[in-house]
Fold these 4 entries.
Entry 1:
Amino acid sequence: MVADPVLLQAVADFFPNGISRYAVGGLLVGLGTVLIYAGTGIPAGASTFLESTLSYVSDQPRFRRYVASRDWRVVFTVGIILGGLAFAATFQSGLVTSSLYEPGTTGQLYEVAGVTLWMTDVQPWRLFFGGILVGIGTRVGKGCTSGHGVCGVGSASKTSLVGVVTFLAVAIGTAQVVAALGVSP
Amino acid sequence: MTDRHPLFKPLVFVGGLVFGFGLGFSHMARPEVVLNFLTFEDLGLPFVMFGAAIVSGIAFTLLPRIRDAAPLTGDRYERRLKPFDRNVLIGGAVFGVGWGLSGICPGAAYASLGVGNVTILWALAGMFLGAYAQGYWRSRSQVRNSSATGAD
C-alpha cells in the first residue's frame, strides 16, 4: 500500500478529527429521518417544532396551521433530546468506544451521576442573537438544515438546493467576519 | 389526523432518538465544531448533511416504488418539494447570519441540550423568540392582504 504523503497531509489539515464520526453521524441522522418517513410518509424537519409549539400558547393565525402536527413534533423533539443524552451516556462518557468515533477537544466536559456531559464555550450572546435570526430565517425560508438540507436535498428539490447554498454561503461569510473581528469563542 | 395508528408517536420517538444520537455522534450538537467548519478549520460537516441527504434520498426514491402508502398514516409517499419564491432567499440569508454567528441550528440545538449543553437554552430561547416575531408579523400582513386581495 502506497500512501501519498501530500494527500495525507491535506487530509490531516482539513480533517483534524477525521471523517468517520461525521459520516457515521450523518448516516444515523438520515436513518432517523427514513424511519419516520417509511412509517408515516412525513419528511420531518426540525424547525417547524418552533412554530407548532408556539400554537399551544399563541392564537396568532400563522401558528394555527401547525395545530394538527404539534403533538407529534413535540414527541420528535423529545426523541432528539434523549438521543443526544443516549450519545452522552455511551460514547461521550467513554462507556462505548469505537475507532469510528473521534472525541475531540471543544468545550467543557462535566459529570453528573456517572454520565459525562458537555458544555459549550461559545458566548451566550452569540447563541441568543444567532438563535433569534435562526428562528426568523428558518421559518421565513421554509426550512433549516434538516428540512432543506436533509429532506429537501434528498428529494432533489431545487428550492431546497437554492436554500442550502444560500444559508451555507451566508453562514460561512458571517463566521469568517465574526472570527476576523476577534470574537472567540 | 385525530385517530392515528397507535404506533405513530412511538415510531416518531424512535426516529427522533436515532436522529439525535447521530447529531451527538457527529458533534453537530457542538457549536464550536460547526463554527470550525464555517471558518474552514475542519471540513467534516458536509459529510453529515449530505450523508444524511443521500440516505433519505434513497428512501424517498425507493419507497414510493415499493408501496403506495405509508402503513401508519395511509398517506402517499411524496418527496419534500416546496414552491420557490424570494422568501427562500431572504429566510435562507437570515438563517445563514444566525447560523454563522451562533454555530447552531434547530435540530442540533435540541440534541445539544441532550448532551448536557445547558447554555444552549440561550439559543433555544432566541429561536422561539425569532419564530414568534416572524409569525406575529406574517399573521398581521396575512390579515391585511386577505382583506385587500384575498391572497397570502
Entry 2:
Amino acid sequence: MEEEKQVGRSAPDPVRDPVFKRELVTLIPHLRAFARTLTGDATAADDLAQDAMMKAWDARASFQLGTNMKAWTFMILRNQFYSEKRRSWRQSQLDQEAAERTLVAVDDPEAPVALDELRLGLAMLPAEQREALILVGAGGFAYEEAADICGCAVGTVKSRVSRARRALQAILEAGNYDRDGGAAGDAMRAILADAERLSSLR
Amino acid sequence: MQMHFGVEDMIEHVPMEDKRKSAAALDEARLRQQAIGVKLRQMFDEVVNEPVPDEFLDILRKAEPPAGGR
C-alpha cells in the first residue's frame, strides 16, 4: 500500500456494527467459495476473501442493512479480484493454459473424478461466462442479482449463463479437455451417474 | 431454471418421427444440464462447508474498534 486509505472508511457505530458483523461472518464461507472459483487456488482465494471481507467491513456505513449483503460482498470480492489481476498480470495476459492450471488445483486429492472433469471444463470457458454460471448455477443468485454483481445487464447475464451451459455440456461430452490422454467422453457419463447418486441420497 | 436449446426451435418444422426424436433429445439435454447443475452446486458447496480458517475471525476482531475506547 502506498498510502493509507482513509476515504470510505466507516466510523464506529456501536448499534449497527455488531449486526453488520454477525451477518458478514455468516457470509465468509460463501466468499471463500466464490473466491476459489475465481482464483482456482485455495491460498490465493483465502487472501482474496479476506481482503474482500475487510473492504466490506471498512465500507459498512455505505451498506443498507436489510438489503442483500451477500450480493454486495460478492460484488466487492469480484471487483477486488479483477483490480488485482489487472495490476499483477498487466503484461502477461492470462491465457487459457494458465487458467486451466490454476482451476485444476483441487485441495482434496480424493475428489470424485466427475468434479475434476467439471473443473477442467469450467476452466475452458471464457471468464465472464464462467462467473455468470457460477453465480446463477451454484451461488443461488437470481439473474438480476448476478447482473448487479458483475455490473452488466440482466440480458447479458442470461445469455452468458446459457452459452456457458451449452459450452460446458459440449466440452464434457466431447471430452476435448486436456487430461493426460485419459478416457475422453466419459466425463458426461461420470457426471450423470454422480448427479443421479447425489439426488437419490437427498 | 431456464434453458435454451436449439432443438426446441426445430420442433415446429419437422415430421412426427423426428419430432419424437427431438423431444427425446430435449429430455436428454435437460437431464444433462440438471446433472451439470447438481455437480456445480456440489463443487461450490464443498468449499462453503469447509471450516472457516481462524484467520478470518482474527483479522475481523482486530479491525473492530476497542469497546468503549475513546
Entry 3:
Amino acid sequence: MTTKHFFVDTTVLLGRSLRHITRSLDTILTTVITPIAMMLMFVYVFGGAIQTGSDSYVNYLLPGILLITVASGIAYTAFRLFMDMQSGIFERFQSMPIARSSVLWAHVLTSLVANLLSLVVVVLVALLMGFRSGAGPLAWLAVAGILVLFTLALTWLAVIPGLTAKSVDGASAFSYPLIFLPFLSSAFVPTDTMPGPVRAFAENQPVTSIVNALRALYTEQPVGTGIWIALAWCAGILVVGYVLATITYRRKIS
Amino acid sequence: MTAPPAIRVQGLEKSYKTLNVLRGVDFDVARGSIFALLGSNGAGKTTVVKILSTLLKADAGTADVNGFDVTGQAANVRESISLTGQFAAVDDILSGRENLVLVARLRHLQGPGEIADELLARFSLTDAAARRVSTYSGGMRRRLDIAMSLVGNPPVIFLDEPTTGLDPEGRLEVWQAVRELAGQGTTVLLTTQHLDEAEQLADRIAILHEGRIIVNGTLAELKQLLPPAELEYVEKQPTLEEVFLALVGARKDTTPREAR
C-alpha cells in the first residue's frame, strides 16, 4: 500500500520543493555568499601569509570552502522542513493516502539538488579566482561522489532540527558549528603548524580527512588510505543521521 | 438511523504527560450529516480530530471512520478522509492551481489538471488560479484549503475551526462551502468555538468539556435542556451560547474535581 506509491509520491513532492528553490533563488545566493566571502578573504588577504607548500592558495583552499558551502546549505534544508511542519501542510500530507516516508525523502533530495547548485556556483567563482586542476573525469567523479555523500550525511542530520525545532532560528542554528569545523582542520592551514592538542583534534576530525581526499583527487596526488577514512566518516555520519532522523520522524507522526 | 455511522468514537482517552485531555469521549456521526464538536480553547477538539485523521494515537478507546479502525486500518482511513486543519495548510510559494494539482497527484487521481480547474471554478478562484497563494486574502486561502480537501471526493471531511481568523465575509463563504458539501452527501465533522457557527451549520451538536462529551443532540434538543423558568428575564428563545455556558457552568458545580 505505502511502498506502491513511494516513488510516485516522492517524485511529486520533490517537484513541489524544487519549485520552492527555483522560485526563491535568493536561498541559493545566501548559501554561497558566506563561503565565497571566506574564499575572497583567505585568498586575497590572509593567503599570502600562509605557507601551504602548494603553489596556488586557492587550489589549497577550495575543498574546505566546498564543505562550508554544504554546511551552510543544509541550514535551508532544516528551514524548509520546519516551515512545512509549522504551516500545517505537513499534517495535510500525513493525513493523505501517501507513502509517509516520501515527505522526508522529497526534502532530502531537494537538499541534494540545492547544495549541488551552490557547489557549482562556488567552483565557478574559484575558477575566476585562478583555481586550476588537471585532474581527469574519473577524479572529478570521485570528488563529486564524496561531496554527494557528505551532503546526504549532513542533510539527514539537518532533518532532526527541522522536525524538532521550536523556532526558525533553532532550526538553522545547528549549522553554525558545522560551518566553523573546517577552521580546526587542514582546510585553511596545514595541521602541522598547530599546537599539540589542537593538532590532535584537527587531524582526527572528519573535515581534515575529507578535505585531504578532495585535494589529493584534483591535484592528481595519490589518495592513499586517506580516502577510505574520508568515506568512512561520510558513511558513518550518514547512517547515524539517517537512523536518528527516522526515529525522530516516527515519533513525530504516530 | 439504520445505516452504520460514518464516524464512531467510543471511550477515547488521551493524555499529554500529566494533562488528561480526553477522558472517555463517545459519539457517532451519521453519514451525510454535519456534526459540530463545540468546546472552549483547550477542550480537546483538535486532539479528537487528530486521532480521527490518524495523526495521533489514542491512549484508550476505539475510533472508526468510514468503517475502518483508525489504528488498525490507518491507510484505509486516509483514503476515506480529508483534513482541513486550524491553519490553512496551503503552499504559499505555489499557485492556487498548483496546490490543487499537487493534492490530486498525491491522491493518485487521473486528470489532476481538470480536477483542479473544476474546483477552482467551484470556489470562485479561477481568476486567481495562476497567482501565488502568498498573495491571497484570508478568505481565499481558506477556500483553497477547503477545495484541496475536496480533491478526490473523500466521503468524510474534518474541518478544524475552519473560520478562525476570517472576517465575516470570509466566514460566510466558508459556511456556504460546507453546506454544499453536506448537500452532496459528504459527512462533515466540524470543530468550532463559535457557537453561532454550530447553530448555523450543524445537524447535531456535541459539547466537549473537561475531556468528555457532556451533551449531544440537535439544536432544538439542546435548547430544550434549559427549563423555560430560566428564561423569565428573557423574551426570546435561548441562544446556543446561553445553553453552552449554562451547561458548562452547571457541570462544574455537580462534578467536583475529587471525582477523578
Entry 4:
Amino acid sequence: MSDTIHSAHGTGKTGTVPPAIELRGIDKRFGAVHANNSIDLKVEKGTIHGIVGENGAGKSTLMSILYGFYQADAGTIHVDGTLCNINGSEDAIAVGIGMVHQHFMLVEPFSVLENVILGVEGGAVLREGVDKAREELRRLEREYSLDIDPDAIVGELSVGLQQRVEILKALYRGAEILILDEPTGVLTPQEADHLFRILGTLKQQGKTVVLITHKLREIMAATDNVSVMRQGEMVAHRHTADTSPEELSELMVGRKVLLRLEKGNANPQGTVLQVDNLCVDTRAGVRKVKNASFTVRAGEIVGIAGVSGNGQSELLEALGGIRAVSEGQVMLNGQDVTPGRGVGPAELRQRGVAHVPEDRHRMAMVTNFSAEEAAILGYQDDTAYQKGLLLDWGKVADATRHMMEEFDVRPVDPHLKAANFSGGNQQKLVLAREIMRDPDLLLVGQPTRGVDIGAIEFIHKRIVAMRDAGKAVLLVSVELDEIMSLSDRILVMCDGFIVGEVNAADANERVLGLMMAGVDPKQAEAEAGK
Amino acid sequence: MSDTIQLPRWIDVGVLPLMNLVLAFLISGLVVMAIGEDPTEVVRIMLYGAFGYEEAVGYTLYYTTNFVFTGLAFAVAFHAGLFNIGVEGQAYIGGLGVTLAALYLNWIPAPLMPVVSILAAALFGAAWAYIPAYLQARRGSHVVITTIMFNFIASSLMVYLLVNVLRPQGSMTPESAAIDENLTLPYIHDMAGWFGFDMTSSPLNFSFVYAIACCVLVWLFIWHTRWGYAIRTVGANAAAATFAGIEPGRYIILAMMISGGLGGFMALNEVMGVQHRLLIDFTAGYGFVGIAVALMGRNHPFGIFLSALLFGMLYQGGAELSFEIPTITNDMVVVIQGLVILCTGALEHMFRPRVTRIYTAWRLRQRAQEAA
C-alpha cells in the first residue's frame, strides 16, 4: 500500500522541475548556540512541506534566514533553481516567499483592505491603489475561497479570520511560497481544519506551503513531506505517508517516547475547591470571566479547555489570588477564600493552594535569578529558609538541589542562572517548587508550553501522581490533546462562560471543538454526530 | 542549556569598567593635548594630588564618603527597578534633619549624638523620598519625573528656610547657626590621636567609617534578607512578584525610603563632619554623580566603593590640577569628570558585545580542545 501512496506524490517530478526552495549547508550561530548546523532542505513545488522539531530545535531560525530576518553564516538559498541572496524581507517577497507569523502583524483598527495594501499602496494618492487592490482581492478571495469581507475591521474579526488576512496579504504580494509558523496555536480544531482546507486549495493552484509546527497530528493530516529537526540539525526527511507519529516523535527527541499517557481511574473524594458565580474583570473593566461555577474534588483532575483568550487565564489568575474577583465566591475546604477581599497569593499558599502559572517567563520565575532564587519564589518568607533576619542560602541551596533531583532538573546546579536552563528544565523546577509543598489544590496553567517532548511525559506523570495522592488539580491548557489525556472531567470555556462540562471518558475532539466555539453542548453533540 | 555563555564576573565587574575608564582617560588625554599641555604631567599631578601625601588621601576619602552614600542610595532603588534621580534633594533634606537635631536636641548627651544624627538624616531623607514613592506605587506617576521635581522643591524649600527661619539674627549669610563642636562627628585624625597615631588634619571624619558599614549593610540587605529578595523580584519582574505574594507597591515604597535614607547620610559627612552648619547647596551635585557611581559599580556595594574612590580621586586630584596648571581651569576638570561619567555610565555597553564575542570564541576553542 505504501507503494501506491509513494507514487501518488509524484516524486518523478524532481527530475524536471527544480524544487521551490532548496537550502544547502545553512549554518547559523548565536554566540555559543549552534542554532542551525549545515542544514540541507528541499521543498518540492506544489507540495505542503512540514517541518517539525521541539522548541529550540532551530525551525524558526531556519525560516527567519529564509525570510531574510537573519543572515546565514554559511550556505546558500535557491528558489526555483536560482541562487538567491536574501538580505531582508523585501528580498524574500521579491522572489515570491510570503510568511504568516505566529503573532500576526496586523493593524487592528484598519480594514482588511487597508491591511493588505499596507506598504504596497502604489503612489502617494491612495484612491487608485485601493480600487485596484479591491479588484485583486476579490479575485484572490474567489480563487482560494477565503470568505473575507474586504471592508471588515481587522480588530473585530476572529483569530481564524485574522490569520486568513495574513495569508491574503502574502498572496497579494505575489507569494508563490507560503511559510506558516505554528499557525494553529490560536485556532479551534474546526478553524484549523478550515485552514488546512485553504492550504489544500493553495496547493492545487500550484503554490508551495511550508508548515512549521510541533503538532504531529497536523503534520500527518496536512502535509505531503516532512522534515525533522533536532538540536539545530536536520535529522530526517520523510514522505508523510511513509511515516508515523511514533517515528516522528522518536526522531524529534532522539529516543522512544510514550505518546499516550497511561493513567488509572480517578477516585474522587470530598470537594476541595468550590467556585460560585465567579466574575473577573480586567483593570479596564472588561468582564473576562462570567458567572463561572464549578467544583474540584480531591483526587481528580479537572481540565479547562478553550481557545486562548476566552477567560481561562483570568480565571486561573483569580483563583491564584493574583487578580481580584468582582463577584462571586471561592471556597477552599469549606472556607471562604475569595481573592481580592483580603486574600492574596501569600495567604492562599499558606492554605494549601499551589499555582503553576501559564506564563513561565512572565510570572513563574525571574529568569535573571539563579535557580535557587527561583526555587523560593512565593515561599521566600518560609521560616525554614530564614536564619534570624537573614536568608539561609545554604539551606535554600540544599532544598533546591533536592527539588532538582526529585524532578530530574538538569544540570543539578542551584547557582546557575534560571535563564540558562532549557524550557523543560525551568518548568520542572517550577513544578517541583509548587508540588513538593504538598498542596491540597494544584492550579496549573499550560504545564507543557515550550517544553520538549521528553519533559512533557515526565510532567504529565507528576500531575497524575498528584491526583493519585488524593489532591485536587485544576488544569488550564490550550492543547486539547493535553486536556483530553490528563483530565477526568473537562469544562469548556468560551467568551468567559463555562459553556459545558464533559466527562473525559466520553469526550471527543469534535464536540469539544464545537463547544470551544460557543455551541451549546447538546447541540454540539448532535452536530458532531452528523 | 549551559550552551549560552555568561561573562564571568571578573570580566563583567573588572575588565569592562577598566576598558571604559581607559577610554575616558584616552579622550581626556587628547583634550589636554589640544590645549597644549602634557597629558603625562597631568596624570602625575592628579595622582599625586589625590594620593601623594597624607592630607591628599584624607581629602580623597572625604569626597569618596559622599559618593559612597549617594551611590548606595541610587543602587537600592535601582534594584527595585526605580531610577531615583532625587538623591540630591533627599540628601539636602537629610541635611535639614541633621541640623535640626543638632541645634534643637542639643540636650542629648554628646556620645549619643552620632546615633541621633544618623536617625535624623535617615528619617528626613526617607520622608522626602516617600512622596514620589507613594505617587509611583499607588498613582503610577513616574518616579523619574517626580524625583526631579522634588529636587527643585527641596532646593526652594531650603533657600526659604535658610533665609527666613534658620539664619541666626544679625547674620548676612544664608546658613544655619553653628553646631556645638562637642556634638559634631569626630575627625579621623582626631580619632587616630586617641590611639596615639599622629595624622595630618583633613576633613575626613567618622562618616567614612559609617559609609563602609553601610556598604556591608546594604550588601546584606539586598542579597541576604527576604526583603532584599522581594525588592529584587519587584525590580526584575513585577508580575512574578505579584504571583509570589510580594505586593510591588509596598516594596517600591520601601526601596525608595531606604534609598532616600542613604542619600540623607551624605549630610552626616558634610554637616556633622565638616561644615558644622547647614550651608546653602551643600549637596553640590554629589547626588547626581552618585548615579554614575552606582552604574559604574554595577549597583553592588563593593563596586560602588571602588567607583566612589575613583570619583573621590578625580575631585581631589582635579582640584589640585587646576591649582597647579593654570591653563587647566576648573571647567577642564569638569570635562574630564564628565568624560568618565559618559564612558562608564552612558556608554557602559559599548565594549560588551565585542568582549562577549571574543570571550565566547575563546571558550569554544578551549572546550573543543578539552573534547579532543
